Amino acid sequence: MLEDNEELFVDDLPESEVDNGENTGLFEHLGLKVDRGQEPLRIDKYLLNFHQNSSRNKISQTCRAGNVVVNGTVVKQNYKVRPGDEISVLLARPPRQNILTPQDIPLNIIYEDDDLVVIDKAPGMVVHPGHGNWDGTLINALAFHFEKNGIKSDLDRVGLVHRIDKDTSGLLVVAKNEYALSFLAKQFFDRKTKRLYWAFVWGNVEEDQGTITGHIGRHPKNRMQMTVYEDGSQGKHAVSHYKVLERFRYMTWIECKLETGRTHQIRAHFKHIGHTLFNDERYEGHIPLRGQNLPKYKQFINNMFEILPRHALHAHTLGFVHPVTQKEMYFESPMPADMDAAVKKWRNYLEK
Predict the structure, then answer these.
(1) Average pLDDT of 149-153?
(2) In terms of DSSP H, where are the helices of 102-175?
(3) CA separation, residue 317 to residues 31, 45, 69, 256, 321 (Å)
(4) Mean per-residue pLDDT for 111-134?
């Protein structure tokens, strides 16, 4: 149940700002199934029955923002519910009723002191509890680590400064007190941190280096996907700089530096220029770019998908100024095993 004072339906649905640009962003705040005997009724009127503290106007605004989903499809406020409909209300912030449960999950902690901890996150681990992933997350694991080691904190929750996607591997910094959280968050907001990402993208990126510029906002139909609005009519200003590290004819290994930090920035920008991340299913990167009719190549790609069963993105470096010592700190994460195996397999394929 929601807390009595919690606003489920809100006037403004902000996108994540304290983020590294690779955050999935939406959390389920209400999920329900329409009863068999329900007569057709506008969804804004129907939802009002489940949260009397909200007005119909706020519910309508939430619908117009594209955050009400019925049977997997975004609907507007005039949609009429039918028996058996499955309804979800998705918002950009986690629900307050979620209780953080410490869980004994292995973590690769590469640095820790009284103020912060730096983690090299494995692919497949969700960073923060949210829609469909209420436990088994990095935050659950950190809560256990802190509790087990008697680490005291003045934060009610683990101090998450930024996030990366479930399938993105690499470096994260987490604060252990309010001062460290504020200090580090400001560095991210002011774009003073030093971060580089490695990615494999489909196709041959012709330029050795370049810049992708284009406003990023939520896709008008697929609310779990971001898209680029070149004319700046929607979304937020976003800039990505890249350089090519190695070419594999049908795939390119790139290094990327973000000038801004928008949700799914790397994934959306590279899809926009025709070079979707390798095996990024959400952005159709799980479909071979070309050569699908060649049996040997098709088998090779299927083998690659087994070796690298996630989108190929890795947070390679992280640099920041320590909140207490004021010293610059810099960390590097080596190529994860699955991406490294993929590189070797591509090289062998091209040598044949």
Answers:
(1) 79
(2) 138-148
(3) 38, 49, 37, 11, 14
(4) 87
